[in-house]
Design a protein that fits this description.
alpha+beta; 2 domains
C-alpha cells in the first residue's frame, strides 16, 4: 500500500511501512566493487530471471527499492553516492517489478546492514516558472514534433553508448527498474549527465521531477503553466552535482544552471520551502564482496 503527497504539483510516492513483513529474497546475490566506473548505471531485469546493476551507487539502489526521488533520501553517508558496485542476483523469470523492489530492500538489510525511518520535514524546494513576462520560450525549448529528434550532447562531448542487449539469444526484453512506474508522458529519449540535459517529447512535470530534481538535489515543482510535450537542450556548469550523475562532461566553460535555464529555455528557478516526505538513513555499511 502506498501513500501519496501532492505538493503544489509535486507528486511524491512513499511506502507507508518499509519492512512491515518479511520481504521476498533473491535466490543468489553477487556484489563486487566497480572501481573502473564502466557500464551504464541502471537497475535492470533481464530474461532468465537475472537482475543486474552494473555501475550503480548505493543511493540509486535505495531510491529504486523504496520508490524515492533523490532528494527524499537523507543522512546517507557520502560513500553511498560515490562508490560504485556491480550487483547481480537471480530469481524467477516472471517476478513482477514490485516484488523485485521488495527483494532489493531485503538485500540492503542483509548485505548492507541498512536501517531507516520515515519523516516529513520542511525542506528547501524550487518552483520552476516562466522567466520572461511575455512567457516566451527560450531557443532550446520547443514543442515536440511527430518524430523523435535525436538526443544532442554539448559540442565536443561524445554520445554515451546505449544499454547492453539481452544476454544469450536475445529472447525477451530487458526491463529497466525505476523508482516509480508512474506514466509521465515521455515517448522519446532523454539524457541527464554532468553539465547537460537533452530530452525529447518530455512534459514539464517529468522535466522538473526527474531531470531538474536530480541535478539540483531538491524537489522541483512545475509552475510554468506549460502543457504538452517538449524537446529541450540545456548546457551548464556541472559543479556541485556530486556523484549522482555519470556520463560525458562538457569540455568548455558553461554558465551556471540558473543562467542556462533562463537563457536556453526561458525558465526560472525560485527557491522556497515546503513539506517533503523523506527516508532518513539510521545505518548502512559497505558490503563484503562475493
Amino acid at each position: 500500500m502506498r501513500r501519496r503527497l501532492l505538493l503544489s504539483g509535486l507528486l511524491i510516492a512513499l511506502p507507508v511501512t518499509f519492512m512491515a513483513q518479511p520481504a521476498p529474497a533473491f535466490d543468489v546475490i553477487s556484489i563486487k566493487a566497480n572501481r573502473t566506473n564502466q557500464g551504464i548505471p541502471v537497475v535492470a531485469f533481464q530474461p532468465g530471471g537475472r537482475m543486474i546493476a552494473g555501475n550503480v551507487v548505493v543511493r540509486q539502489i535505495i531510491e529504486v527499492a523504496y520508490g524515492l526521488d533523490a532528494v527524499q533520501l537523507l543522512n546517507a553517508p557520502d560513500w553511498t553516492a560515490t562508490e560504485r558496485f556491480a550487483i547481480e542476483a537471480r530469481t524467477a523469470d516472471d517476478t513482477p517489478t514490485d516484488t523485485i523492489r521488495l527483494m532489493l530492500r531485503a538485500m540492503l538489510v542483509d548485505r548492507f546492514g541498512f536501517a531507516a525511518h520515515q519523516e516529513r520535514r520542511e525542506l528547501p524546494i524550487y518552483a520552476l516558472t516562466m522567466a520572461r513576462p511575455d512567457k516566451r520560450l527560450g531557443a532550446r525549448l520547443r514543442p515536440s514534433g511527430p518524430e523523435c529528434a535525436p538526443i544532442r550532447p554539448p559540442e565536443g562531448v561524445p554520445m554515451p553508448p546505449p544499454p547492453p542487449p539481452p544476454p544469450g539469444n536475445g529472447a525477451g526484453r530487458i526491463r529497466l527498474i525505476f523508482p516509480t512506474d508512474e506514466p509521465l508522458g515521455r515517448r522519446c529519449g532523454a539524457m541527464t549527465a554532468p553539465g547537460w540535459i537533452s530530452a525529447r517529447s518530455i512534459t514539464m512535470e517529468e522535466f522538473t521531477r526527474r531531470q531538474l530534481s536530480l541535478v539540483v538535489r531538491r524537489p522541483v515543482v512545475d509552475e510554468t503553466g506549460l502543457s504538452g510535450q517538449f524537446d529541450l537542450d540545456v548546457f551548464f556548469s556541472p559543479e556541485g552535482q556530486g556523484g549522482a550523475l555519470v556520463g560525458p562532461t562538457p569540455v568548455s566553460d558553461a554558465p551556471a544552471l540558473v543562467t542556462a535555464l533562463q537563457d536556453d529555455l526561458g525558465l526560472k528557478l525560485d527557491a522556497r520551502r515546503g513539506p517533503v516526505d523523506v527516508l532518513v538513513v539510521d545505518g548502512i555499511e559497505r558490503p563484503s564482496e562475493n
